[in-house]
Specification:
The chain is an alpha/beta fold and about 325 residues long. About 40% of the residues lie in helices and about 15% in strands. A hairpin with a 5-residue loop joins strand 5 and strand 6.
């Protein structure tokens, strides 16, 4: 009888031990599953971060590729010269290391310089944003008061006392704008107004006018005294010529607000992987004409997800597969 009881007891112990082991296995599995999932996610995030770093390097390289192309001597042959990369807004596409890369450059003079633009030109920019004419005049006067070196208030303008009286903490610097975002501090400029005019402004062209060869049709329509329908017709012909790689037709109109393209350019680059990851780079650069001088970078930032104005840069040039030229 005692032997049978001992056998039953041993079997019971083995059963309890089995249950304990099974419980322990289940418990450890419950602990391990989240850890395993966390490791999987961590591995995926690391892979994505590595891919984005590679894409960013590709986009940065495209900026420097564009600088190289712009610095190359212009070919003596007219046909070859037309094929060379220029700061005219055309997009150049290529494939490198499995990435699709697109890069374009446009003269900063394709936009209106906040620091140097003629007042009539600036006024039309604000008017195009729906600002009443009187308010547009006041804003332009305030812009000029911001950039001049004195504290003398222009008619309809604003100096430091006016800003303090209105409760603003930022007062005019009496110096040039170093970024267009500073315009948001100017008296009368609301966030809505700034968003509307920002695509047409720059602080890098150092020009009182705009370059008609690279400016958008929308911006050229803001130039005082020009016929809007004539402007749009010629811009369409210009963009078509650029896309086809032929000479741009002569400009059928003139304006004292026109200027030739300067040495500062805005470069936009994007690199995209096969699975949709992307990286962008936007740079504003002054391209020096001498071989010994290095380009001067004024802006180096991730590209913005903003709607671009309709310009020649919407067209695309695709070099031959594997081209390095």
């Amino acid at each position: 009888m005692s032997i049978s009881l001992r056998r039953i007891a041993r079997k019971a112990q083995r059963g309890i031990a089995l249950l304990v082991v099974l419980g322990l296995v289940i418990f450890l599995s419950l602990i391990a599953l989240p850890f395993s999932e966390s490791q999987r996610l961590s591995t995926q995030m690391t892979a994505n971060a590595l891919m984005i770093a590679k894409l960013q390097a590709a986009a940065d390289g495209a900026v420097h590729r564009m600088l190289f192309e712009l610095a190359r001597p212009r070919a003596a042959d007219a046909t070859l010269a037309l094929a060379q990369w220029k700061a005219n807004g055309m997009t150049h596409e290529m494939t490198e290391n499995g990435f699709q890369i697109a890069v374009s450059a446009r003269n900063e003079a394709a936009k209106i310089d906040l620091n140097f633009a003629a007042e009539a030109l600036l006024k039309n920019v604000f008017a195009s944003a729906g600002v009443a004419e009187e308010d547009a005049v006041n804003i332009v006067a305030a812009v000029k008061d911001w950039t001049d070196a004195d504290n003398l208030k222009r008619p309809n303008g604003a100096e430091a006392d006016d800003y303090r009286a209105s409760g603003k903490k930022t007062v005019p610097s009496n110096d040039f704008f170093i970024a267009i975002e500073e315009l948001q501090n100017v008296m009368g400029v609301t966030p809505q107004i700034f968003s509307a005019v920002a695509p047409y402004l720059t602080v890098q062209s150092r020009s009182a006018g705009v370059d008609p060869m690279t400016a958008s049709g929308a911006l050229l329509s803001m130039v005082p005294g020009l016929d809007a329908s004539l402007v749009q017709s010629w811009v369409s012909e210009r963009d078509a010529a650029l896309q086809e790689g032929i000479s741009v037709p002569a400009i059928p109109f003139s304006s004292p607000y026109f200027a030739t393209g300067g040495s500062s350019v805005r470069i936009s680059a994007e690199a995209r992987s096969a699975d949709g990851l992307r990286a962008t780079r936007e740079a504003s650069v002054r391209v020096n004409t001498t071989a010994e001088a290095r380009p001067q970078f004024y802006l180096w930032q991730r590209g913005r997800e903003a709607t671009r104005p309709s310009v020649a840069g919407d067209s695309v040039i695709q070099p031959a597969q594997g081209s390095t030229r």
